[in-house]
Predict the structure.
Amino acid sequence: MRLGIDVGGTNTDAVLINGNNIIASTKEATSGDIASGVINAISTVISQAGASAGDLEAVMIGTTQFTNAFVERRCLDEIAVVRICLPASQALQPLEDWPEDLKEKVGLHTYLTAGGYEYDGREIAPLDEGDIALIAADLKRKGIKAVAISSVFAPICSDMEERAAMIIRKEIPDVSITLSSHIGTLGLLERENAAAMNACLLTHANKVVGSFRDALRELNITAPFFMTQNDGTLMNADTVLNFPILTFSSGPTNSMRGAAWLSGVDDALVVDIGGTTCDVGALVKGFPRESAISVDIGGVRTNFRMPDIISVGLGGGSLVDPQHGETVGPQSVGYKLTEQALVFGGNTLTATDIAVAIGQAEVGDTKLVSKLDQTLVSRAMGRITEMAEEAIDRMKTVEGNASVILVGGGSILIGNALQGTDKLLRPEHFAVANAIGAAIAQVGGEVDRVYGYADTPRHEALADAQNLAIEEAVSAGALRETITIVNVEEMPLAYLPNGAVRIRVKAVGDLNANIN
């Protein structure tokens, strides 16, 4: 049996899956200490299934904890950013485009030093190892224990980043270092931003992962423990300690993967409605479509992989204009829905009350909303429907109607028809699709490299990239015989010589049960 858990800001969902059968599921309130909410959720599903801790083959957890921490400017470390670039790339300093409040939180300790590469691996200048040693001594004097290192064209060659890290660790043995080449893709500033974001979350990562491990230990669960990434694949818990940023947007990703598994549809739009927001994304071959542009997270532009998601302020707890019903959200009662919504005896008109009043959902006490003005109810439901339809239209890439899968507890807000859709699916267990997506997650490997077709024939370059992606997946814990290539992208780089082409390949496979 596989245990899937999704820890959100409002709810912690858990499911137990045996083969292709969902044998237990629950939705519990997320606790302030994280661990107790996880313990409650796990205990509930194990009890429902009549199982024991020893029956579990693997535990998969998805969480929004790191995204929330960065956006809310909390639990962030003071960091330093070292850019290897001189004499090039010095017009814009590291963290130049970060919001002022965020700069104050992480500190403005930035350094530029000689080195870096051209697109084809030629050196801009040799690495100034003496200067790196001086930077390390300065960091030690300041007491900084988290460092992000970036180098020009590091995805092509990461040797200088690796060497700089070795020099800094020699001076500060307990330092935490994030290399940009391990996270981002081409684009120095965005890749550097991603590395800095990751560096400032490393202490928090230890606390969060530690909470998960404590919860599993308390329940005597010894099965391998993995966490979900934002591309729909898994990484082991130790990897999260070094790369918490890879969990960003893993919640919507899990919901989309769960939607594909529950519905049996691999290509469709997914509408995931929770207590506060409605997230709309596109499934391509069963995986979320990746954003093709730089993504803004908490006011910082980055270029590491992120799903293409549109979020609107519509959820089960969204506040409804009590006078006319003309506005819905973006404010929400969130996790207090069962205390404040009318159907639960509260005094706040919410979107859930509207869905119950119009006969679309059966939760709480329907008598408590039976006297609502029907004109107000109809107008509010019209606005809810309109918001969902607008989000769906924004996500489409082609004209015409789209197939849509509805998931999330808040999807009770949507009726049986939406304009712009030709098929509306609401699969069984839709409310816990996020936890299901975690439970069925596979293991992936990805390669993003630049090849020169003038030097390397196209077929050889593609084969090389695919082989590298497969080996990455195997190293991450995938069974080689189950691996498939799910995405291949070729992007000509017209501004570079020798027929330069950027090739991105993604491979995924089933988890090797023998990997711990």
